[in-house]
Amino acid sequence: MAKEYNVVYISDYRYILPLVVSVVSLCENLVLLNEDTCNIYIICNQVSDEYKNKIKSINYPKINIIIIDVNNDSLIEGIVDIDEHHVTKSACYKFFIPNILNNVEIALYLDCDVIINKDIRAIFEYEINDVSCAVVEKPLDGDSLGKRIGLEEGKYFNTGVMLMNLKMMRDKMYPQKLFEYKKKHQNLSKLMDQDVFNIVLNNDVLYIPTRYNFLMSLFMYHKFEEINMRLFNDAYISPRDCIFDQVVIHCVDKYKPWDYEIPYFSEIFMKYYSKSFFGNERLNLVSLLYQLNKNNYELIYKNKMWSEGIIDYRFPYERIDSGSRIIIYGAGAVGKTFMEELSYTHYCEVIMWVDTNWKEINNENIKDPDLIKNSEYDSILIAVSSENYVNEICEFLNGLGVVKDKIVSLFKE
Fold this sequence. Notes:
With 413 residues, the protein is α/β, with parallel strands linked by helices. The protein has helices spanning 16-29, 49-56, 97-100, 142-148, 166-171, 174-184, 194-201, 218-221, 224-232, 239-244, 265-273, 288-294, 333-345, 387-399, and strands at residues 4-12, 37-45, 63-69, 106-110, 114-116, 133-137, 157-165, 205-207, 214-215, 248-250, 260-261, 286-287, 325-329, 349-354, 366-367, 379-382, 407-409.
C-alpha cells in the first residue's frame, strides 16, 4: 500500500539558508518506495517571492513542496521576538499547525536548523493514535528542565522534532490552549514555544530515541564519554562515529554550523549545503575556537572532541568555493582528514593529491608535486600543520609558477 508522508517546517526570512539545507537533507535521505510520496509543507512568514519560488524549485522525485503564506502576525498577535536568544516569534506558528494543515492527520514537524542525516521513514512508524505527539526527551538535563516548570515526572522534550497527531490536537483544542498559555506567560522562559508545549501537552506524548533529535549542544556541555555511556550504552568509539550515526541532527545553540567551523557538524551541514541552490555561494565560516576564546569561554575545552589540533584540521570552507577544482598538497594527518571530509561532503573536486615524499608513501593516489605545472585547478590547499613547512611548500610552488592567490593553507595571511 502506498504511503504518504507529511512534513512541515516554519520559517521567516532569517532562517531561509538553514531551511533550504534542511529540506535538501530530508529529500536526499527519505527513501520512497514504489508509489510512496511526500508532501513538504513550508509555513512562511515574511519570506520574499524570490526565495519562495527558489524553494519550490527544489526538485526530487515524488516529493511535493507546498508553500503556505502567513504574511501577517494577526495569528500570533501579542507575541514578541526574543532575538538575543536566536529565537523569533514565528516559532509560535507551531501552535497552529493542526489548524493550518486542517486536512492532514499526521505530520512530522522539523525546525529549520535540523539536518536529516539518514533515512527518516522509521519515525513515521511510531504508534501515536493515543497521544498527541511523539517527541525526544531532552537528554542529560531534561529532568531539571521539567522540574523547573513544575512537571511532576520531570520529563522535558525538545520541540524541534515532533511527530504530530494533528487530528487529536484539533479535537483537544491544543492550538488555542497553547497560544493562550503563551500569551499569559510571555516571560516564562527564554524559549519561545518549548516550555509551553511541555506544560500544555504534559504527559500526552510518546518518547522516542535520541537519534531522532540529536542536539548539537550536547557536545558543548558534556564529555563524549558521558554522552556515549548515558545515551548509547558505550556503543561508539569516537565523537565522529556517534554524530554521523544519528538520524536527525539538531543544530541548537547560538553557534551555528553555517556561521562557525564546528567539528563534524559543519562537515555534515556543508554536505547538503553544496547540493542546495546556495551551493555556489561561499560561506565565510568563523573559527569557533577563536570566537570562544574571544568571548572568554573555557567550557569548550572539556570535550576531547575539541582537543588540540582538531579544529585546525577543519576544511577552510570560507576560502575555497563550492565546486572548485583543487589540489591537496600533503598526505599526512591533515591531508587524510581533508580527503575523508571531501569524500563525504563532495564540497569540491580534488583533481590531484600530492606530497613531497610521494615516492616513499605506499599509496598510488599520491602523486609527484611536479605534476602541478601541467594541471588546471582553482586552488592548491596545503594540508600540513607546520607553518615553517607551509612556507617551504609555498616557495616550491612559487618556483613552479603557481600564483600566490591560488594557494590556501591552515594559516591565514
